[in-house]
Amino acid sequence: MCGIVAAVAQRDIAPILIAGLKALEYRGYDSAGMAIADGGEIRRVRAKGKVREMEALYDADPVPGGTGIAHTRWATHGVPSEKNAHPHVQGRIAIVHNGIIENHASLRESLKAKGRSFLSETDTEVMGAVIDEHVQAGKSLRQAVTAAVRELEGAYAIAVMSLDEPERIVGARRGCPLLVGIGIGEHFLGSDAQALIKVTNRMMYLEEDDVVEITRDSVAVFGLDGSPVDRTAHESEISADSVERGEYRHYMQKEIFEQPRAVADTLEGRIGPHGVLPNIFGIDADPILDKTRGIHIVACGTSYHAGMVAKYWIEHLARIPVVVEVASEYRYRDVVVPEDTLFVAVSQSGETADTLAAMRESRRRGYLATFAICNVPESSVVRESDLRLMTRAGPEIGVASTKAFTTQLAAFALLALDLGRRRGLDDAVYLEHCKELQSLPRYIENALQTEPAILAIADHFINKQHALFLGRGAQFPVALEGSLKLKEISYIHAEAYPAGELKHGPLALVDENMPIVAVAPNGPLLDKLKSNLQEVRARGGELIVFADERAEMEDGTEHIAMVRVDGGGDLIAPAVFTVPMQLLAYHVAVQRGTDVDQPRNLAKSVTVE
């Protein structure tokens, strides 16, 4: 959540800052602003709402200058408003900040006692005042930032500029991502590579408690003790084209249709005709995975649903007990960790605050090792894990995650098969499942062809306020994911249940105004599901059934809309059946006129609790 862009250059940098903020809009925000050093003053442009509102103010009164910081804010302290929008100015300091400072209230009171006044309700303005206090005491900007962050409790990524050093910006991070973009005669700071990819593809990823100082000609990184540290620059794999919508109406639609390629990329070089290839989890993986006797999967949101599917796979194929935890709950629970248990952290961004904190907490709880499934190679979760598997989904701009989920499932399938082989899974069964997994991109491609049928079904949801999703077995987490997608972007209240739970409560809600979406793959639970659906029909419920082409289900019956999907085998069916439900949520949201890519109140990367 929130986004930072900063630049020191030989050219006017306002267009760079505005373009960077637009590239970060996917993260979610409610206000935007920028500050530029212009002669002997810092000039700010801030607005509640979208970047375009702030850009219009800038166009009406352009601000020249080669040093500036910019920000998109998602409200945590103080309501969305111009006065609470970043950058904040205190004395001769301007600052932008992602994260939450937990001791801001006590710092604010001590600063007020010294005569400081505050114009906003934010913790960020307090940070600026603390830094300005150190500048007034005679410290350089870097020294002041370093001293200030030692006083802070919480999480932050910051970029700070000072009128006393107008051609210099200082950044720092703890718990929130921040990177350096390296140019020629210009350098940048950003929350992620997408903010900077149009001006440079050379990136330097900062680590915990790093303090960085950038000028036009130099980048220097220091620890909190003031000593220099080395950080390696990398060429980003992201291209400028990959963060454009192209022919698609929304990023979410583009990303839904990118899934065959994203899943193929995730599997490429990792599975072959003889099974899962060696060393794909890291060169130290073999002794750890051979020893693994239990697994705890910890994640949030969509990644949590992927972990729930993986539980079915791993327990079935490898006979290893799996516990799936919501990261925000795991941190505050007295978890029992059996001997030789592997901790698996799942995160699209690799910076999800609760998941990252849970992984760090796992270090003291006696796990065998930590394993990361993630989409961002340079992220904190990846850097701090013992083993890792990258999902290769590419940039995901839409807030509602799509290709991250299916690529996480592909990664989990690789892990489940590898563990199964180690635990004595029959060779013929193992090779058949490996062949099935390799066919997943093709089956997803086929599932995308259901879009015309789903467009017609979406009409039924336009005026609905509630929906129920049903699934059995490994399709129950898929139902959870389908309901999450619908509520995220269409604002229809949706819930998901195992179909067998209908008579234990949810059936009381069923009437002609409650659409029920059911996932019906071909398998041993199909007859059970059909019985559950009969209970819905008997009460006048409107059914939307995503049924496997081989499943014996009635088509064209009153109150039933049927979409046929070739789900492949049992292993890949959860990923395949996810796709039409993504399309359903997308087209319902489009027809209801919501902001599909940036749904209200939500952020893409939740980097605070």
From TrEMBL:
Domain SIS as annotated: residue spans: 285-425, 457-599
Keywords for this protein: Aminotransferase, Cytoplasm, Glutamine amidotransferase, Repeat, Transferase
UniProt-listed SUPFAM superfamilies: N-terminal nucleophile aminohydrolases (Ntn hydrolases), SIS domain
Origin: domain of life: Bacteria
InterPro entries according to UniProt: GATase_2_dom, GFAT, GFAT_N, GlmS/AgaS_SIS, GlmS/FrlB_SIS, Ntn_hydrolases_N, SIS_dom, SIS_dom_sf
GO molecular function: glutamine-fructose-6-phosphate transaminase (isomerizing) activity
Residues at the catalytic site: 2, 604
Glutamine amidotransferase type-2 domain segment(s): 2-217
Pfam family, one: SIS
Enzyme Commission number(s) of this protein: 2.6.1.16
Function noted in UniProt: Catalyzes the first step in hexosamine metabolism, converting fructose-6P into glucosamine-6P using glutamine as a nitrogen source.
NCBIfam families associated with the record: glmS (TIGR01135), PRK00331.1 (NF001484)
Quaternary structure annotation from Swiss-Prot or TrEMBL: Homodimer.
PANTHER family registered for this protein in UniProt: GLUCOSAMINE--FRUCTOSE-6-PHOSPHATE AMINOTRANSFERASE, ISOMERIZING (PTHR10937), GLUTAMINE--FRUCTOSE-6-PHOSPHATE TRANSAMINASE (ISOMERIZING) (PTHR10937:SF0)
Record-linked HAMAP family: GlmS
Full protein name: Glutamine--fructose-6-phosphate aminotransferase [isomerizing]
Naturally occurring in which organism (per UniProt): Luteibacter jiangsuensis
